[in-house]
Amino acid sequence: MPSGSNGIRTLTPQQLTACDSPQPRVYVEAAPGSGKTTVSALRFGLHRFTAPTDRRAVVAVSFTRSATEELRTRVIRQWGPSSVTWPHRIVTLDTLLCDLLFHLLHYGVLHWPGGHTELEVLDTWRTTLPTKSGRIRPVLQVDKGQVVVRTVNESQSTSHPSATDFKRAVSDGRCTHDNVREALQGALTGNSARQALISYFECNVRSLTVDEVFDANDLDRDVFSLALSGCSFLTLVGDPWQALYQFRGARPAAMKEYISESGFTPHHLDESFRWGNDRQAWLMRRLRRRMPMTLPPGSAHDADVVLAHRWKTLWGSDPRVLPLAIKPGVGQVQEAICTLLLNEITQNALGQQAVFLHDALVTLNIEKEALATTLHPYLQTAITHLKSAIPPSLVWQTLIDGLAHCVPAVAAQQHGRKPLRALALLQLRLGDAELVPGLTCHQSKGREWNKVAIKLSEADASALALGLDPAQADHRALYVALTRARFGTLALT
Ligand SMILES: Nc1ncnc2c1ncn2[C@@H]1O[C@H](COP(=O)(O)OP(=O)(O)OP(=O)(O)O)[C@@H](O)[C@H]1O
């Protein structure tokens, strides 16, 4: 049994009861900082080590990579690295959905074009295929157990590859996580896939814990129902105020209904441990009661991080704020190169990685090791040039002439558009001032800092002045940002 700063001896009675509840269906609801991740980590370990002869896996999932990583780190810290040796695992929900799809393909319940049973699953097509904005979108559907490519007419234009490129890539065994969801959704309309997945859970997963459960959409809820029939334990953990994935179909109200109709034993954690002083605790209580509030003003240097709804807002704020992602909007290869440059700067100045570094490496088709060896000198030279006030246009040309020798994707774009505005924004951050990281509200979820500054939009300020409404997606995102600080939350002036 672990002990120590986050160990079991320090838990409140409410947390302890939630951790070791013997009920097969447990729901833990709590406000920010009251120990949802702590309880998830402890319950994971308890299930992992209390039935050593049961060969089925103990699995925990969360929605974002950063939240998943946070949970995995805490589990390893409390229970040791053996707690997550195969088949036990802590992965994103997307990874679990891939496992389910691969299971159906492997056992012939579902057939992929070209007969593939293993797939390369991408985060987005943008990193590997040319995409264009339009309303006709290629998608995957399921017809009598066969995955097929179709097109759908959407009400709004979105970016996607052409139907021909899409079809070819799918036949080659490639797809995105969205396509995995489409194929699973299609498959689950048939009874054979549902039965196959219930027996997958029965035979392979003893306990499933879902963190941040209010980010779940209809398909996710359907998968939880299958897990409910198959696993010995299903634990759902979340806070309806912190649901952020409405744009991906999350419906917090539907999740609440599902939980109350499906016989879960509820546990509420009332005490928050994040607030390091009475004022912060008082402010956070007011926020939750939907009461009006204003934030004290402050500068970037008064905070450990600056948060805003959008990256663009952060780039447009104080130049001492270094946002951890950059989107120049002039092409995918340009975006990837700017991300590599940004990553050099964030590593040097903050010891942190740029958020979309992985996507940039996929777009350029290079391994992470190449960054530290082959590409590093070119990137460092570009940064030195930017620091020396050389015009961005010249810096860019020199950089891509150099990179073109070792990265074919760059050679193909040598005469493409130049991300001059993005380079100018990077240049602005290369003075002597100490930099503070900038993150979106979404990226801040599940994390905590001593002091947080928020770049409020006019809409944010008036929402705060009236009191936040958890039924509104923007208010929930703002709420997540407002509840990250231990000692103080400021409005960035
Ligand atoms: N019983 C406890 N005693 C002392 N500290 C605790 C206790 N429970 C949790 N904490 C600490 O409080 C902080 C917040 O806990 P945790 O991250 O688990 O909360 P959370 O509910 O997941 O927060 P959020 O929803 O905002 O992400 C962490 O630093 C954690 O170590």
UniProtKB/TrEMBL annotation:
Superkingdom as given in the UniProt entry: Bacteria
Residues that hold ATP according to the record: 30-37
Keywords: ATP-binding, Helicase, Hydrolase, Nucleotide-binding
PANTHER family, alphabetized: ATP-DEPENDENT DNA HELICASE SRS2, UVRD / RECB / PCRA DNA HELICASE FAMILY MEMBER
Protein name: UvrD-helicase domain-containing protein
Residue ranges annotated for the UvrD-like helicase ATP-binding domain, each copy included: 9-276
Keyword rRNA processing: no
Organism encoding this protein: Streptomyces mutomycini
Pfam families in UniProt: UvrD-helicase
Coiled-coil blocks: none
